[in-house]
Design goal:
Oligomer: single chain
Number of helices: 19
CATH class of the largest domain: Alpha Beta
Number of strands: 12
Bound molecules: glutamic acid
Mean pLDDT: 95
Number of domains: 5
Shape: elongated
CATH superfamily of the largest domain: HUPs
Length: 460
């Protein structure tokens, strides 16, 4: 049987790099094993879910290179959830509760004062018909809880009930159902909380592996008995550590910080974002991996650390530079054209080691097309004018710079930095950048002469 994985964001904001970590882990595992990758939009919260975010999520996954094989929406599946609710109620596993948030808070505090675990006391389960009718007559609407299997015969006698699974990331993992409150599955207004729809979807969409953040470990403990109550074998679970910024700033779908959109707009390549998102906090070295199959091959779920995956957003620059360095001209030709960059392959090969965003290519193209402004002392300006007299005739190639500077050295006695630095500044306007031997043929003799003669006395 081929595996099926899903990524299940709620469309309440733009995906950020931490969401990308979860999406990629699922998509890459599916890709590596020849399985399917499903996007499930968790849009049961109709007030906060927005169509523009749903659209953006699909676009962002495409940008990352992991378009989903299928898309499912929870908002289109409410009937399925109602059917499962009916089954659970029928089986006596779903019961009505009438406490308000304040009631629950009071109960929690009372239990804590008595040094008892602050879990729900199942008062709703103990109500008889008449009591329920009275509460409903008072205008109270129930919310509904799932009865966890953490007792022998008397639900009031809760006992320690370890639920254990072999987590794909964390190894043997245990949650004690005896320390959990019966989860609320349906709110007073009839809307569904995340817990049950997720289980029903995982069953009905045939999900075999659930990879999600380790903030869901306790949920898994509560969801496994729901799978069982619905007569389904739970999928395999893996809980990865969460990406956290080294500077402590939170990643939030709502704030848009480090959203995939903003990273794309800032000119980062999807491969560098994917490499950072997947490799941080694992046993693998963090380096730019330009190919998703290669990244999938490195995915080692059991090598994921249990502590938070701390990263510095500035690391993206180095990864991005690495990715760009690895691109051949064909990979970027169209995008360079959009940026108004000419010069063909020779230009790309000359500058690709010296950029950290593709848009930097446009800056270097302006350097190549000139004119450039060079800040040189009078002495260096005179030296540049002298150097101009030794420029070889064309055609030029990547040996020209060496031959020329040798001749200049012989004529002026300058060497090392005092020879090369003023020439670089005169020709490019900058103290560093691509190899001069690659740039010179791009400038050509005429333009090189202009640059060496500096402002003021440019030949007309
Ligand atoms: N919508 C849930 C979330 O984003 C999905 C969790 C899950 O993968 O089950 O946290």
């Amino acid at each position: 049987m081929s595996i099926r994985l899903r990524f299940a964001p709620s469309p309440t904001g733009f995906l950020h790099i931490g969401n990308a970590r979860t999406a990629l882990m699922n998509a890459l595992l599916a890709r590596r094993e020849g399985g399917a990758f499903v996007l499930r939009l968790d849009d049961t919260d109709t007030a906060r879910s927005e169509e523009r975010f749903a659209t953006a999520i699909v676009e962002d996954l495409e940008w990352l290179g992991i378009p989903p094989d299928e898309v499912a929406r929870q908002s289109e599946r409410f009937e399925r959830y109602s059917a499962a609710i009916a089954r659970l109620t029928e089986a006596g596993l779903l019961y009505a509760c009438y406490e308000t948030a304040e009631d629950l808070d009071r109960k929690r505090k009372r239990r804590l004062a008595r040094r008892l675990p602050p879990i729900y006391d199942r008062a709703g389960l103990m109500l008889d018909e008449a009591e329920r009718a009275r509460l409903e007559d008072e205008g109270r609407r129930p919310h509904w809880r799932f009865l966890l299997p953490n007792f022998d015969s008397d639900p009031a006698e809760i006992r320690s009930t370890p639920i254990t699974w072999t987590d794909l990331c964390r190894g043997e993992q245990t949650v004690d159902l005896g320390s959990l409150s019966d989860p609320v599955l349906v709110r007073e207004d009839g809307s569904f909380l995340y817990t049950l729809p997720s289980v029903i979807d995982d069953i009905e969409l045939g999900i075999t592996h659930v990879l999600r953040g380790d903030d869901h470990v306790t949920n898994t403990g509560a969801q496994i008995p729901i799978f069982q109550a619905l007569g389904a074998a739970p999928p395999a679970f893996g809980h990865h550590n969460l990406l956290v910024r080294a500077d402590g700033e939170a990643l939030s779908k709502r704030s848009g910080a480090l959203s995939l959109r903003s990273l794309r707009d800032e000119g980062y390549e999807p491969q560098s974002v994917a490499s950072l998102a997947v490799l941080t906090g694992t046993s693998q070295a963090i380096e730019a991996v330009s190919d998703l199959d290669a990244l999938a091959a490195r995915l080692d779920l059991s090598g994921i650390s249990r502590s938070p995956a701390s990263f510095d957003p500035a690391d993206l620059d180095a990864l991005n530079a690495q990715i760009l360095r690895g691109f051949d001209y064909a990979a970027v030709a169209d995008r360079l054209e959009v940026l108004g960059v000419g010069g063909g392959e020779a230009f790309w090969v000359a500058i690709r080691d010296n950029i950290s965003r593709l848009s930097d290519a446009a800056d270097w193209w302006r350097v190549v097309t000139g004119p450039v402004e060079a800040d040189l002392s009078d002495e260096d300006r005179a030296f540049a004018a002298e150097a101009a007299r030794h420029l070889p005739e064309e055609p030029w190639d990547d040996t020209t710079f060496k031959a020329w500077t040798k001749a200049v050295q012989a004529a002026t006695g300058r060497k090392g930095k005092s020879l090369f630095q003023p020439l670089r500044i005169a020709l490019t306007g900058r103290p560093d950048g691509p190899e001069m031997r690659s740039l010179m043929p791009l400038f050509g003799r005429r333009s090189t002469l202009d640059r060496l003669s500096g402002p003021g006395d440019r030949p007309r």
